[in-house]
Amino acid sequence: MRIYIFRRLLLTIPTVFFVTLIIFLTIRFIPGSVIDLMLAQYGSPAGITKIDRQSLEHKLGLDVPIYIQYGRWVDNTILRGDLGKSLWENTPVIDEIKARWPVTLELGILALLVTQLIAFPIGIYSALRQDSWGDYFTRSFAILCIAIPTFWLGILVIVYPAIWWGYSPPITLIQFTVNPIGNLRMFIVPAVVLGVSGAGGNMRIIRTMMLEVLRQDYIRTAWAKGLRERVVVMRHALKNALIPVVTMIGYQLPVLVGGAVIVENIFSLPGLGRLLTNAVTERDYPVVSGCILIIAIVLVLINLLVDLSYGFLDPRVHYK
Amino acid sequence: MWKEKPLGTVGAVITLILLLTGIFANFLAPYGMNAVNGTHALERPSAHFLLGTDNLGRDMLSRIIFGARVSVIVGLTATLISTFISTLMGVLSAYIGGTFDLLLQRFVDAVLCIPNLILLMLIISMIGPGLWQVIVCLGIANGIGGSRMIRSLVIGIKENMYVQSAVALGAPTRKILLQHILPNIMAPIIIIFSMTVPSVILAEAGLSFLGFGIPPPTPSWGGMLSGNAERYMVQAPWMAFWPGFALALVVYGVNMFGDALRDLLDPRLRGGVGHYGQRILKPRRDK
To answer: Are B118 and A295 inside 8 Å of each other by CB?
Structure first.
């Protein structure tokens, strides 16, 4: 087990290296450079001289060859944990992220909860009543969940209540520590919108796995012993159907984060996604790279945890 | 077909309608895609404008019909690129194996760990928005992630006797890959293709919605829901409803079609023992 964890950790190193390389290269090759944007914004068009440009490039560290820039960036971000400063606001990126991540985390956790609250009951139900009308109905519902785009659902949820009841979602963020109920009330609608998109895929996996497990011998034994349906389903079948579901959650997280970007933009929630969208538009390199780096590393770690969790979920899994 | 796979048939019909609408958009649309009727801005759905008009007085129905063309083009071409990349990377990674496989898979891990939408936003802001940019980006980003599945398939096939005997006989690698391995993963490739089309269409709409997709005058279902349109939606809810409805319907249909296709092509996923195969074979024998 210990050796497996060690090897698995070792394998995350090249992954993180590629993540940093992808982020760095992509951002550095964005053409319309931030310098043009800044000069256009602050300097009068006639007054832009070569000197201005050079001094600005030097100040931002953009005047050295690209591999040195990469070296500096890795040295600063990975080794010293300093994500740099926002090019526009001049505030440390880490502070911006610290202020925003709780919003995205809360949205993500609530959405995941919504997803599972929809997926588990109907997944189990449609497996137990395979090929009945209930099964067809719930499966169609699952595909509907996949088909409805997050941003459309978000817009409908904003537009129609506004027309029917003149209701519009709150604009300023209510802190959880200040007003927990108001905070939850604010987050629940975006979380449902985000959570619905994942429910379909999860429900299908749960159904397939339950169908497979329900045909096993030990389930027949459990029925033959005269156990109640609830015990057979919940304790004997569901537990063994869980592994692919956990894997699925690991795979879905990037999609969830992508959805969070959209939902945060629709409901104007000040989370990482909104910060990122603004930063990409303004070409604020340090903020963009900092955000994506944090998101990617968190996802790498969660995937690691998912891999390791198999051992706890299924004692038959042995790590070599 | 209708009896055995009702949902699949519905999906196939929707897919076909989408294709035809995309191809014949110029003939089907009652107005031009950007024809502005200044005096008819924000009009309710009526006999003249079946789905209403938008804030510039453009006919919503016509724009949705032309939006279908964008979805068809993006859905097919981006998926072609993506499937090609997936197959190439997956086959090579699995067949060559060793350190090459290890490193390439860590690269795939890295791509999978950066949320697709964010990666696409970044790349598109790098090369500028536009139809072809979106297609190429979607193709590459999806292709890299999708190579995982092909790789695992090829690893299984590689161990088969016929591949090993071809190697022992000294067949050139190119021949082994093209004649022995590729034909055996054709069915999964078609399945992956059919599953990628709806996700690519959704991704394009999402990108256009965020303003990183196809730039405004061209009607894209995602783009029609964003930008200036958002300000008029409470006043004109049909502007919010129809483009998204078209999108949802298409994604639903193509998904259903893909599901049915998977059931038909992948014998391991057919329900029961020979259940599906028997029923579909019977009428053919009768003929």
So the answer is: yes
Show Cβ contacts of residue B26 under 8 Å, excluding neighbours closer than 6 positions: none
Return the pLDDT at A94: 82
As beta bridge partners, residue B53 has B59
CB distance A214 to A237 below 8 Å: yes
Min Cα–Cα distance to chain A from B31, Å: 25
Residues of A in contact with B212 (CB under 8 A): 280
Which of B15, B114, B127, B142 should we substitute to test contact with A (largest number of A Cβ atoms within 10 Å)?
B114
Residue-wise pLDDT tens digits, A60-111: 666 677 777 778 777 777 777 777 777 777 788 788 888 888 888 888 889 9
| Secondary structure, 3-state, A43-108 | CCHHHCCHHHHHHHHHHHCCCCCHHHHHHHHHHHHHHCCCCCECCCCCCEHHHHHHHHHHHHHHHH
* Contact list, A140 vs chain B (CB under 8 Å): 7
Enter the tokens of residue B35.
């024809």
Whether residue B118 and residue A261 make contact (CB cut-off 8 A), yes or no, is yes
Residue of B nearest to A167 (CA): B234
> Are A150 and B114 in contact (CB < 8 Å)?
no
Maximum Cα interatomic distance, chain B, rounded to a whole number of Å = 77
Binary contact (B122, A27; C-beta < 8 A)? yes
Question: What is the C-alpha end-to-end distance of chain B, expressed in Å?
Answer: 15
Q: Is this prediction's pTM over 0.90?
A: no
- Do the chains contact at B110 and A16, CB–CB below 8 Å? yes
At B56-74, the pLDDT tens digits run 767 778 888 888 888 889 9
Q: Which residue of B has its CA nearest to A285?
A: B122
Task: Say how far apart CA A268 and CA B257 lie, in whole Å.
Answer: 36
Share of chain A above pLDDT 70, in %: 82
- pLDDT tens figures, A232-246: 888 888 877 777 777
